[in-house]
Amino acid sequence: MLFSSIPFLYYFLPLFLICYFAVPKKFKNAVILAFSLFFYAWGEPKYVFLMIATIVVNYILGLLIEKCQGTGKDKLFVILSLVFSLGALGCFKYADFFIENFSLVTGLPVKVLNIALPIGISFYTFQILSYTIDVYRNDVRAQRSIVALGAYVTLFPQLIAGPIVRYSDVEKELRERHHGFDMAYAGIRRFITGLSKKVIIANTLGELCESFHASDEKSVVFYWVFALCYSLQIYFDFSGYSDMAIGLGKILGFNFMENFNYPFISKSITEFWRRWHISLGSWFRDYVYIPMGGNRVGKTRLFINIFTIWMLTGLWHGAEWNFVIWGLYFGVLLVLEKFIYGNLLTKAKGFNHIYVVFLVAVSFVIFSAGSFSEAMSLVGGMFGFNNVSLLSADTVYYMKSYALVMIFAVLASTPVLKNIYGYLQKGRLKKVTDIFEVPVLLALLLIVTAYLADGSFNPFLYFRF
Amino acid sequence: MKNKIGTIIFAFVLTFVFLVCLIKPPADISVSERRPLAQMPDISIESVLGGKAASGFEKYATDQFPLRDTLRKIKATFGMNILGKKDNNKLFTAEGHISKIDDDMSDYMIDYVATLFKRITEKYMKDKSGKVYFSVVPDKNIILADKNGYPSMDYEAFFEKIREKTEFVEYIDITGFLSLNDYYRTDTHWRQEKIVDVAQYLAERMGAEIEGEYWENTVNKPFYGVYYGQIALPFEADDMVYLTNDTINSFIVTYYGSGKGEEGEVYNKKKLEGNDMYEMFLSGSEPLITIENPNAQNEGELVIFRDSFASSIAPLLAQGYKKTTLVDIRYMQSDLVGEYVDFENCDVLFLYSTAVLNTSTSMK
After folding, report:
1. Which segment of B35-39, B48-52, B196-200 scores lowest on mean pLDDT?
2. Residues of B in contact with A190 (CB under 8 A)
3. pTM (2 decimals)?
4. Rounded distance, CA A49 to CA A72, Å?
5. Residue in chain B lying closest to A405 (CA)
6. Residues B11-26 pLDDT 10s
7. According to the model, what pLDDT value does residue B32 have?
8. Phi, psi of A148 (to 5 degrees)
9. Which residues pair with B304 in a beta bridge?
């Protein structure tokens, strides 16, 4: 089920909230678990059993790891947890990718399995691993209640598009959390903001990207417009989902970590990745990069560590070579910034922003492709290798038609609007902004509902994650 | 205080809309979009496990959402007037008309249609004395889109290619006879009272003679065309005019949609109460219709393979023939036509609009 859908907004969510706030505290996790399983089972019920198996297995392993702490067996159990969870991820997400490439390299005709990818498997696998690893590291205690652990793993606000919430971050809130008007309203405001980002901005930019793909009259400029708009689309889509997740979390009394922090204002690719999909970057850092030795290793090993992490980051986003290339592309840029021109970049004010936007736009063109060859064709088009004119009538039309949305999206991808609102909130206009805030949010909800009721373009971009 | 009031308001809105969704009786059709609305899916173990129940419910919840038509208007107005988009769901307004962006020419469809027409010609007209003609009704975008800066199919290339692929028939070019005013402003179709010259030219090229004098009858009801509902923006309605004269009034029209012939009207007034008033012309979507002309000056017969554009021009053309048969191969297999139509001593006209030629794989 998508947040940006009528069934979620006007059936699932009200029913869930009524049940959630109607039951006593001790049953709230059970309500979350039951509704989250329903949410996940919606449209693809068979994979709910895989999720339940993941919860049960890791619940038992978590208890065993804690019980056997210091005996050496705890290591065995955490390895079992890794094998089970990553095995499921590998089997459902990467099996066909490896089979196809194995066949290609060896020439042996091995049949692909054609397994459908369970939605959100990459997110919940990483979440459950953060639990068993943290129990193994003695950072958290094993969860005694399978309902609480189940509620954590299945928590629907962040189940299918993140952020990747670590068990240690919500451990206390799973036991005891505060509900009140302040948290609830902050959550509502955040949720509607995220929903508007997704439906009004991201989906509209997505229409332009679809028109680009469908156009017979592409041009070099159109390729660049596509690159910019796709980058903005995925930012508003992804950060919109994160906002919705964080907002829903607040309504339920959870405080999830921030996942995006205006990445397009970065002055380097290194900074970009500190601001983009923060929960994934920090997960890889803490659970893979640092255990591999992190920065405190020799230069050769450091290169190996960096490229391993970025290859894995790419693969996490999808089992295709274009995602591997996309990850390694960032690996190369980060190495270059770290060892060659990082300092120079800091001094090149203005240019460093252009540098980031340019490289990120190229990266998302690679990301958007369905295959490696398509990625190369799209990047080729940006640099005039596809035998297209510089400008076409289609390009002019779509640039005119989407000009205001693009300008607004660029503006909203910076903290300018947030800062203006923050300034007004501190000044004498606070009362006015307070009065207008609720009507504005209601108007946004009405417009979003209008888009959804119209059945407008509403893609789900994370089906390969 | 703001937090408390805000939370209560949103809790109320969500709960209220939820309850309205639950109690609102489902509607059968969307009048503005002219389509059936999704209904509550059947819930069974198979449909739930297969995901059909969920996808069916999503369509149902969206289609049956309270005040959906108003919301569609809000969306269209916001998109075009606030966000500055030049089209809404590919529909645009220019020069007082609503039209739809059709920027892709389908080579596949042109090949498909040409092969189909060739098969029909060879099957029914081989060694026959009649001639086979082909004419294409251009979409109003040919006049409207490019001129107003909207993406448009390369019509020149389209006509060139389709003529090249259908050299086995005699092509009649009617493009020069059509101007923007010959089309309804809110609909895709042409206006019957404005295509008298087109009918005259087609008849002349096929060697028939038709009358040029008609009475203009205006329908006493505004006509909101197919694009009106789709664009969901306020727009002035069209008026609808149909032509009659003594010859047309004497026509014996037989509809074969039910399998056996049933006599009916040239202009079916009952259709004016339906979703699409244009269906008044020869009752809209019908697989097979015959028009017999008791006042015919000759024994000539014409078979028209056609789409909906022919519904309004056929009564004019039928004046020049003793019998005119209209065949819509989107609703009946072309292989079965021979069971109902005798192709001896008759001419054949393929009359199709660019939109159907470019997109309709339902022609069989």
Report:
1. B48-52
2. none
3. 0.89
4. 31
5. B83
6. 999 999 999 999 999 9
7. 84
8. -65, -45
9. B326, B349
The answer for B98, left when phi > 0, alpha when psi is -120 to 50, beta otherwise, is beta
Structure tokens at B347: 């001419």
Instruction: List pLDDT tens digits, range B47-106.
Output: 888 889 999 999 999 999 999 999 999 999 999 999 999 999 899 999 999 999 987 888
Asked if residue B291 lies in contact with residue B314, where contact means CB atoms within 8 angstroms, the answer is yes
C-beta atoms of A17 and B150 within 8 A? no
Cα three-residue angle A320-A322-A324, rounded to 5 degrees: 80
Interval B227-254 mean pLDDT: 93
**Residue B84: which of A403, A442, A446 has the nearest Cβ?**
A403
Residue A317 is a catalytic residue: yes
Asked if A43 and B17 come within 8 Å (Cβ–Cβ), the reply is no
Mutate to test the interface with A, among B83, B146, B359 (most CBs of A within 10 A): B83
The DSSP call for residue A416 is: H
Which parts of chain A register pLDDT below 50?
A: none
Query: How confident is the model at residue B281, as a pLDDT?
Result: 96
Which positions in chain A touch B151 (Cβ < 8 Å)? 215, 217, 393-394, 397
As to burial, measured by CB atoms within 10 angstroms (0-12 exposed, 13-18 middle, 19+ buried), residue B126 is exposed
Question: Which ipTM score applies to this complex?
Answer: 0.90
Angle at A154 between CA A148 and CA A157, to 5 degrees: 110
Q: How many residues does chain A have?
A: 465
The answer to whether B65 contacts A453, with C-beta atoms less than 8 Å apart, is yes
pLDDT for residue A271: 97
- Tokens at B351, concatenated: 């009359």
Nearest CA distance, A370 vs chain B (angstrom): 22
Q: What is the pLDDT of residues A270-328, one digit of tens each?
A: 999 999 999 999 999 999 999 999 888 998 999 999 999 999 999 999 999 999 999 99
Domain boundaries, chain B: 2-94, 106-359
Please state, as a whole number, how many other Cβ atoms lie within 10 Å of the Cβ of residue B338: 12
**A168, two tokens:** 């240690």
**Residue A27 neighbours by CB under 8 Å, 6+ apart:** none
Helices (H), chain B: 2-23, 45-49, 52-63, 68-77, 107-125, 141-144, 155-165, 196-205, 226-231, 246-249, 309-317, 354-359
For A396, name the nearest residue in chain B, comparing CA atoms only. B149
Nearest CB partner across the interface for A188, out of B10, B58, B62: B10
Residue B348 has pLDDT above 70, yes or no: yes
